[in-house]
Design a protein that fits this description.
The protein has 208 residues and is mainly alpha-helical. The chain is built from 9 helices and no strands.
């Protein structure tokens, strides 16, 4: 991949990385509820999902999935249902009886559970497939071998995704002071849950 194309690819890809999509909203919620470190660990799930999608795109399978109306629809509805499910669980989650002073309350979750959430949200988002099948080829130099170029773009995209993950997770963590009281916890649970439900609704009603 030529340096000129790479320099064009980086800002364009980062603009996609930082869009407030389902995974970024989930990272912000995780940063709020579980802290920066756990939110970053959870992000491993989305990175694995994106790696899988990039490999599928490089081998041609991504184009087949993107062209299949049925596959697109199934992924879209499945992803939307999962986001709404997470949002409802968060909305209905119990609050802790804590003092109005001291450290913000931090919810508990297993590393596996938070990674699984991020993975399922990313892998079930058909828009991610379209990004890799429609966006990446715009920066391919046909005079050069394709796979090394896909590998370069894939590694760059994942690195930029880590930066976006950190930005959203740290933004969520900055709001953690609001969870010092039961009222604050309830408000943030319902606000975060509403964001995830809305993201699910937008995904379900979106078109290609």
């Amino acid at each position: 991949m030529s340096l000129d194309l790479l320099l064009l690819f980086i800002p364009a890809a980062f603009a996609i990385n930082v869009l407030p999509g389902p995974n970024n909203m989930l990272a912000m919620t995780n940063g709020l509820r579980y802290g920066l470190f756990d939110a970053m660990k959870g992000g491993l799930g989305r990175l694995v999902a994106f790696f899988i999608l990039i490999v599928l795109t490089a081998t041609g399978l991504g184009a087949i999935l993107a062209a299949s109306t049925t596959a697109f629809y199934v992924l879209k509805i499945g992803g939307a249902i999962y986001l709404v499910y997470l949002g409802i669980r968060l909305w209905r989650s119990k609050t802790e009886d804590v003092e109005d002073i001291g450290e913000p309350q931090k919810s508990k979750i297993s590393t596996y559970a938070i990674i699984r959430q991020e993975f399922l949200v990313a892998i079930s988002n058909p828009k991610a497939i379209l990004v890799f099948t429609a966006f990446f080829p715009q920066f391919i130099d046909p005079a050069l071998p394709m796979l090394p170029q896909f590998a370069t773009m894939g590694v760059t995209f994942v690195f930029l995704e880590i930066i976006a993950l950190f930005l959203y997770a740290i933004s969520g963590k900055q709001l953690a002071f609001l969870t010092r009281t039961q009222k604050g916890q309830r408000m943030m649970n319902r606000t975060s849950g509403s964001f995830l439900i809305a993201a699910g609704g937008l995904l379900a009603t979106s078109s290609r």
